[in-house]
Amino acid sequence: MFAPIALISFDLDDTLWPFGPAVARAERVLFDWLHAHVPGCRSFLHTPAVLREFRARVLESQPELAHDMSGLRCASIAAILQAAGASPALVDVVYPIFLAERQRVDLYPDVLPALGWLAERYPLIAITNGNACVHAAGLGHVFQHVFQAQTTGYAKPDPRIFHTAAAQAGIAPAQVLHVGDDLHLDVHGALGADMQAAWLRRPDLAHLPPATPSPAPCFSDLHALCRALGQHHA
Q: Is 216 helix (H, G, I), strand (E, B) or coil?
């Protein structure tokens, strides 16, 4: 199933925790704060969905922010503040409130035991297009490094973010196994960077495409991946 593995990398959002609930909570906190402290926004900021509309407009006008989730969110908050007649400088107050809630994630139940088992056998890193913090998630002790699109300058599926991670670890790409939920970003991205890939298709994610034909082994949870790796290296 797998060639020799010297390093395992993980996607974060929707791989180790559900992303949707975390960002929904963060947007609700942001929405409530803006309504309470920026009266000018009440005439147009009717629901949290409007936050996403502003984010989409900013991304359309500043596509260079596509790989920088923090920069994109800050720019969209600044646009809302400006539309409300408030100082865009308030973003320095507002964004940390949003980010603190966005970092409050609920791990899938298999994550801690599986990563503990894997960390005893392989070095682990994370490769993410998002801005989640593994330390805030309680996983800082298992990951040796986190490679983010906003700091590397490349976003999955660009092979350069995968190659940056492998090069820093001193591991040939062919000996790296990347695990993630997104068929395009994670699976095809890793394979396109000459890495191995495992597709984590968690049953609660409705956006997943059909499993067949799959370019990489599929697993419904990390326990199944651990079993496969245990058999592979037995």
A: coil
Q: Would you call 68 a catalytic residue per the annotation?
A: no
Mean pLDDT over all residues of the chain?
Answer: 93
Which of 11, 13, 182, 186 is catalytic? The answer is: 11
Tell which CATH classification among 1.20.120.1600, 2.60.40.1120, 1.20.1270.360, 1.10.3720.10 matches the domain 20-102: 1.20.120.1600
pTM: 0.91
Please tell me the CATH superfamily of domain 7-18+106-232, with its number: HAD superfamily/HAD-like (3.40.50.1000)
